């Protein structure tokens, strides 16, 4: 079998993305000096984007072991590599600590005490980070050193524990970082809403990386068209799931018609914010749904790559739509900081990703199910 198991950065992706991160950071700092309020709101959008992408990949790994999946053995290293970067993404939070007074109204006025207090907020955030770092490092450590049946049993055990902690922490992190931007608004479905977007964007990311590697002749025989078809099915399923959760949240709040709930949607239902709301409906649901509903399109890699890019972009738009009306209530005010901060985080993230991907074989060559995965068994 003609296989390439070790990733070699022949295109110097590590260096190119690192330079992108450095240049974008410098430009972002200039933007910080010019508009500090917009800086912190854009920074929050970017931070949550890259964190949810990593967390979505961690959920992919958790489900891989919890469900004893075979089909995803050959591609799980992509998700594991992204998951392993969670400790570094946590460091992105540090500047947000200094912008809390700008982002969150409750830092100036006592409300919903003691939950909305700086010390408790930071303690909860630290708890989320500790849980995610512990889960990701444990799974990554045992997976990259996979050697026997005992290794698999260990990974299954930790995946069960990790799934419980994951569900708890991602929900409350969504409440804390995003929902408390408007401390009067609340939704019990918001955690699931953020989770659905998180896992969807991770599937898009994994798909895009695998297509790039395939074009480079890497994992060409190990990840076949049937695997891409499976990824497209998951992408389709979670496109529908995201739309269901987002729509149901809206319908319940609309039907309840409570002042403390509807104001959040009213702010996104007038002026140019309404245009962005419609973009979310069509770009995040209608277009992917109409394309992925056909089985043939799930097997055309250029279409899958384009959809993956669209989903990545729409996840950023979704987070932007959640955060920025807190600053610009009447109309959308785009700023070049929206781009440079995202590219700064993305440059460093992707530089570390490609560097980490080369540290270990790209497939778990010691796992007995690897051959079955190549054959397309589930």
Characterize the structure shown:
This protein is mostly helical. The chain has one domain (13-374). The protein is built from 15 helices and no strands. α2 (36-66) packs across α13 (301-323). The model has no long low-confidence stretch (mean pLDDT 91).
Write the topology of this structure:
Layout: H1 13-34, H2 36-66, H3 76-83, H4 86-91, H5 94-98, H6 100-103, H7 118-144, H8 149-177, H9 190-215, H10 225-256, H11 259-266, H12 271-292, H13 301-323, H14 336-357, H15 370-374
Helix pairs in contact: 1-2, 1-14, 2-3, 2-7, 2-8, 2-9, 2-13, 2-14, 7-8, 8-9, 9-10, 9-13, 10-12, 12-13
Describe, in short, the structure shown:
With 378 residues, the protein is mainly alpha-helical.
Defining key terms:
378 residues, single chain, mainly alpha, globular
How much of the residues is beta strand, in percent? Answer: under 5%
In DSSP terms (H or I, runs of 4 or more residues), the helix count works out at 15
Q: How would a crystallographer describe the biggest sheet?
A: none
Give the rounded overall mean pLDDT.
Answer: 91
Structural class: mainly alpha
